[in-house]
Automatic annotation (TrEMBL):
Sequence similarity: Belongs to the glycosyl hydrolase 5 (cellulase A) family.
Protein's name in the database: Cellulase family glycosylhydrolase
Record key words, sorted: Glycosidase, Hydrolase, Signal
Signal peptide (residue range): 1-20
UniProt organism field: Chitinophaga qingshengii
Domain of life: Bacteria
Amino acid sequence: MKYPAPLLLSLLLLSRLAVSGQSPWTAEKANAWYQQQGWLVGANFIPSTAVNQLEMWQAATFDTTTISRELGYAQATGFNIMRVYLHHVAWQQDRAGFKRRVGQYLDIAARHHIRTMFVFFDDCWRDAYQPGPQPTPIPGVHNSGWLKDPGGLIDQDTTLMDTLRVYVQDIIRTFKQDQRVVIWDLYNEPGHFKHGAKSWPLLKNVVAWARAEQPVQPLTIGIWNKEFTDFNQYQLEQSDIITFHNYRDSTSMQEAIDTLQRYNKPLICSEYMKRPNNSTFATHLPMMKKARVGAINWGLVAGKTQTNYPQGNKGGEPEPAIWYHDVFRASGAPFDTQETGLIRELVDQ
């Protein structure tokens, strides 16, 4: 039977979608996957010698010695997963070298029995960035050098969306069957830092790009603001497993868990632990273990990101008596030995 050209094109597109299997995972598939993972407990990781994602991943400052040492701290504490941000500029400079360094990082993490959740895009913090040497931290300022990706540049460069497509698909294609990569986190906090609705095109595109590659790992986009109802609905619909952020007290955390567990998919809190907000390991980690919720706190080692200092501060203050985030000093000494002891105890139970 002959079809009119427009209809034939539509049928071909539908056929390609059916073959590519781009639908989100069913609850049954997601829960079967989660049963094989054990309790996922860890931290958001950047080595203490890097002020931002570019300093972590560029060849001149890729610091395998520090990465290995600090992942050793994580292993000794019982952590088994790290959430790690990428940046398209590091790939754009040197695609083969960037992927080689990602592989080196994964080798190091695997030696410490740690798997990785990679994050592609991020609407948070500094909008301007460039390759090469990165700025020195502003003393005492929380995340003074952290970078958005791609940030406002996507509104100025009409070719960037296609560059980002090639980037995402190149990385996923390279590592889509690598068991050291446990989850792909496609977009951190879309709409944040006043991006709002401008984040929609990239959010929808990155989901399509990632699904076209058919990775064996689940895809997710974390819920972070309950007021962003349209974003939240889309993120929940498109996530194979559900991730979320919560830096508030135990009542708020329990409400978030209760609300999101109604979707009957695996649940991981991929950002929490802000001590001045009564979001601590002591208050939150037992709760998450009881509910079989994965737990990934912000920050492993206090360093150039200075996230042990409070967010929004002006700088120049002494180190706070109560750290905001982070678990260890660069020396490996814990901020609080009771915290690391509790983590180890709960993981071993």
